[in-house]
Amino acid sequence: MEKLKKTLPIILLAGLAVLALIIISLKAIKEFNVPPEIEVPPMVMIDDIMYQLKGDYSGVPESPASGTIEKVTLEDEEPSENGEANFGEENMEYWVMDDYIVIKFDEEFLKLDRVEE
Predict the structure, then answer these.
(1) Residue 109 forms beta bridges with which residues?
(2) Bridge-partner residues for 46, per DSSP?
């Protein structure tokens, strides 16, 4: 019984630490809009460069769109052609910035960062 009294607080603290890590992980996943069950993140290929979803874009691009998404592949596949995405729908507008792109999806603007190889 004495041993249980000594180990119970340690077990409780370990459980709380695990719970905190789970909450932090779920918050990060939600922040980047990537459901945990999807193995391939939302991606787009533009001008032979792959971009990956990193979160919402704050603001609205001021310049005219650089182009539109021409083709949408399956969610669990990486795009293999220019103008192709693995999420959303055809004709989504996109803006090419320096090292990221912005896509208009469901009246929201999403930021996709360049994937480093």
Answers:
(1) 104
(2) 49
Judge whether 51 and 84 are in contact, CB under 8 Å. no
Query: Which of helix, strand or coil describes residue 49?
Result: strand
> Read out DSSP for 50-102?
EEEEEEEPSS---SPPSEE--EE--TTS---STTEESSS-TT-EEEE-SSEEE
Q: For residue 113, what pLDDT is reported?
A: 94
Please determine, for residue 29, whether its predicted confidence score (pLDDT) is greater than 50: no
Q: Domain locations in the chain?
A: 1-31, 43-114
Distance CA 85, CA 79 (A): 6
d(CA 76, CA 67): 24
Mean pLDDT of 15-31: 55
How many residues are given for the chain? 117
Q: Give me the pLDDT at residue 63, please.
A: 92
Q: Is the pLDDT of residue 21 over 70?
A: no
